[in-house]
Amino acid sequence: MKKRRRGLGCLVLILFVILVGVIVNVSRNSDPTSTGQNAGKAEVSAEELKKQGLEFDEQAWKDYLTMYETHNSFMKNMSAYSEGKISKLDFYDYCKDLEGWFAKASISFNYAKTEDERTYLSTFQTFALADQTAAKSIIKYLDSNATKDLSNARVQIQRATEAATTISSNRVILLSKIGVTKEESDKMLKEAVADVKALDSKK
After folding, report:
1. pTM to 2 decimals?
2. If I label 48, which of 20, 82, 113, 159 is the partner at 20 to 30 A Cα–Cα?
């Protein structure tokens, strides 16, 4: 198994997408009460919609960071195994635990209240399922030493990375729909960058 380097490269891509999203989406003059967030609920004020959206975003972003950190741990353990720093048995047990963790995570994103939120969380599920399948493929590889199993794991890891990037981009779009101001979005962007950098710097 060749050493795999993720983390920083994934961070650069994610931050690029966030910055593009801020420039393209937050600058739009959208009426929060006219989006899918509020279809059929004209009585909900923009202020209430924004409050609900920010509460949702806080929970979703915490879930994202947890998955992102777990994904990074997966990549680091793969590298450690390929370098002979952990035993095959320990890595096997780790992947078994990881597969179970991501399986549980994939069914935990059930707190959306609007169609936009449900669409946003669907990519969280994709992220979790991709890493779950990758861990399962690694387990098969450790049992079989078959190249096809390792190849399947690589495909799913790429799928998870793409989902992580999509979530970052979609977050900006979702926030713009609920009426987050430019100043608020800039502050949240800086916090998001700090959050992800902190996770990427962990050893």
Report:
1. 0.81
2. 20
Structure confidence at residue 27 (pLDDT): 45
- Nearest CA to 131 out of 155, 97, 92, 157 is that of 157
- The verdict on residue 113 lying in a domain is yes
Q: Is 14 part of a structural domain of the chain?
A: no
Q: Is 76 helix (H, G, I), strand (E, B) or coil?
A: helix
Q: Which residues contact 57 (CB under 8 A, 6 or more apart)?
A: 171, 174, 175
Provide the domain count of the chain: 1
Q: Which domain holds residue 191?
A: 60-200
Give the integer Cα–Cα distance in Å for 199 and 137: 25
Radius of gyration of the chain (CA): 19
| Nearest-angstrom CA–CA distance, 166 and 68 | 13
Distance CA 59, CA 55 (A): 7
Tokens of 190: 């800086």
Mean pLDDT by 10 residues, the chain (203 residues): 50 52 48 50 76 96 96 96 96 98 97 96 98 98 95 97 93 91 88 90 79
> What is the sign of the dihedral through the CA atoms of 196, 197, 198 and 200?
positive
Domain assignment present for 6: no
User: What pLDDT, on a 0 to 100 scale, did the predictor assign at position 45?
Assistant: 87
Contact (Cβ atoms closer than 8 angstroms) between residue 1 and residue 81: yes
Q: Does 89 map to a domain?
A: yes
